[in-house]
Write a structure and sequence with these properties.
Layout: H1 2-13, H2 26-94, H3 96-180
């Protein structure tokens, strides 16, 4: 162990030798380390985040397409209902003498049931969109939290390594002082 320490001392002793030496400025080395860590996180993290967001976008678009298809089906049902309404109105004119009130009741029941069905389909579409949006937001939040936690752990590990590095430097300086005395 003493040989390893002596080699650090001897390397640190000849700063004018040229190509190798220790940078004891802790602020400069931390900034460099942090910039390297942040650069790596941005370089590798943006692809992952971009892929997550693209996948989420595709799911939302698929949900919207499904909702639009449901809307199309509802419009189709509405057109069928309108056609049937016209037919009922024509029959109502025919049978006005025999039971106008009964036909009106049937028409209202049909309109109400169609209206309820359309409202249910619209509510389902809105709930589905809202659910998918909330789920997407929650997933993005979770990913961001995980990445922030990983970054914090990386920074913490980096700080601990620097502290260990500083202790070694201080011990070497102390030994160098003992040797020169």
């Amino acid at each position: 162990m003493k040989n390893v320490t002596d080699s650090f001392v001897s390397l640190g002793h000849w700063p004018s030798a040229g190509s190798f030496g220790f940078n004891t400025d802790i602020l400069a080395t931390n900034l460099i380390n942090l910039s390297v860590v942040l650069g790596v996180l941005v370089f590798f993290g943006k692809g992952v985040l971009s892929d997550l967001l693209d996948n989420r976008k595709q799911r939302i678009l698929n949900t919207i397409r499904n909702s639009e298809e449901l809307r199309g089906g509802a419009i189709e049902q509405l057109e069928k209902a309108r056609t049937r309404l016209r037919k009922v109105e024509m029959e109502a004119d025919k049978f006005r003498v025999n039971g106008y009130s009964e036909i009106e009741r049937e028409k209202l029941n049909f309109i109400n049931s169609t209206s309820k069905t359309l409202k249910q389909l619209e509510n389902y579409k809105n709930e589905t969109i809202q659910f998918e949006q909330q789920r997407a937001i929650n997933q993005v939040r979770q990913r961001v939290f995980q990445q922030a936690l990983q970054g914090a752990l990386g920074t913490l590990s980096s700080c601990l390594n620097n502290e260990l590095h500083l202790r070694t430097i201080r011990a070497n300086i102390g030994m160098l002082g003992a040797i020169t005395d």
